[in-house]
Amino acid sequence: MEQYRAFSTEEAIAYAKELPDRFPSSASLHAEEIGDGNLNYVFRIKDSESGKSVIFKQALPYVRVVGGDWPLSLDRARIEALALKLAADACPGLVPEVYSFNQEQALIVMEDLHDHLILRKGLIAGKRYGNLSRDIGIYMARTLFYSSDLYMNPVEKKARQIQFHNPELCKITEDLVFTDPYWDAPSNNIPGEIRDFVEPFLWQDEALKREVAILKHAFVTKAQTLVHGDLHTGSVMVTDLGTKVIDPEFAYYGPIGFDVGAMLANLLLSYCAQPGHRVDSQQTVEYRSYLLQTIEEMWLYFEAEFRRLYETETTEPMAKTAGFYDWYIQQILQDAIGFAGCKMIRRIVGLAHVADIDTIANTEMRVAAQKQALAIGAALIKGRQQATGIDAILAIIDTAR
Ligand code: SR1
């Protein structure tokens, strides 16, 4: 058993050469470290003769963006590999194929999605994706249903829950999403221009903080299903018609609404950022309407598929009681809206921002986007309990404009 080491490009090539059946013996391999995420190394290994390539994703024993001062468990690579396998079973074609996993090296060898683009970059560029809402709606419905108590044998569900014990990555979310944005925490990354706004708007609003505390409690205690745990637009890769969900290293047993809320939040952050990326107000209006339509369709696809699975594959007898489904889907929606609000706020004042907003060159427009994201986020958190359908989001956005 080889001791863990963070690969150099040369070590990545040497490892790739030993992979059975991956490259021909005549291969001329090159490796490039292309990771731009917060946590890991990502190498693309390519054979210049055949054009074949693979991705190596290797966990580092610390948070990459912060460095050695913030150690982090390598076990997240095992969790990611297992979550990708379960997602591939639940919705084939919507996640990259995992070729192999090496536990000692915390290394996943997987399909190279070289023809795909990170969704966040596509949204910043103003692109439209015809199958995105359907694919993400289906991905969420199937992955979230098949690991839940609605479907799984209760003993097997609890065993799976143990497999996805992920305390260190959960702690990151507990701190960075639900705690630090609501006080003057050292980890925060508050843009100087809005610092004076943040104090009264977030830190002194006791009603808002109470609702965030309730949502944090749900994140910590509501072990409904295996969630992706970090389903933002940087965790989705797209072509014009194809969609792949990547990076489930934050997977754990949590509330179904947490994944749905993450997608809502990131589409809404893109909504807030639009004036900073489009050439005129007409383009902004049109692209915003596309984003709102995507949000609505994504929920409707999710809800339709989740309902179909509930009606045809639920094994839990008491869940078949009249009225249960309506209650169940409504709490998913209300949780999702609340989590979306928390996830918008953390991307403005917390440690990790989003490029949608940070790349707006014009300061006035960037500040307007930041304040709008905070206003919509807070309104979602406070207004979630009145929501009975996805159109509630549109109404809440209107009140926050
Ligand atoms: C220190 S990790 C910061 C963020 O990156 C990941 O994508 C998660 O969203 C995490 O909160």
Automatic annotation (TrEMBL):
Gene3D superfamilies found in the cross-reference section: 3.90.1200.10, Phosphorylase Kinase, domain 1
Pfam family, one: APH
EC numbers for this chain: 2.7.1.100
InterPro entries named in the record: Aminoglycoside_PTrfase (IPR002575), Kinase-like_dom_sf (IPR011009), Methylthioribose_kinase (IPR009212)
Start and end residues of each Aminoglycoside phosphotransferase domain: 31-279
Leader peptide range in chain numbering: none
Keyword flag Mitochondrion: no
GO function term, MF aspect, one: ATP binding
GO BP term (any one): L-methionine salvage from methylthioadenosine
Catalytic reaction annotation: 5-(methylsulfanyl)-D-ribose + ATP = 5-(methylsulfanyl)-alpha-D-ribose 1-phosphate + ADP + H(+)
Protein residues bound to ATP: N40, K57, E111, D112, L113, D247, P248, E249
Keyword annotations: Amino-acid biosynthesis, ATP-binding, Kinase, Methionine biosynthesis, Nucleotide-binding, Transferase
Binding, substrate: D230, R346
Nucleotide-binding found in the keyword field: yes
Protein's pathway: Amino-acid biosynthesis; L-methionine biosynthesis via salvage pathway; S-methyl-5-thio-alpha-D-ribose 1-phosphate from S-methyl-5'-thioadenosine (hydrolase route): step 2/2
Family label: Belongs to the methylthioribose kinase family.
Assembly description: Homodimer.
PANTHER family hit by this protein: METHYLTHIORIBOSE KINASE
Functional summary from the UniProt entry: Catalyzes the phosphorylation of methylthioribose into methylthioribose-1-phosphate.
Name the UniProt record assigns to this protein: Methylthioribose kinase
Native source organism of the sequence: Brevibacillus fluminis
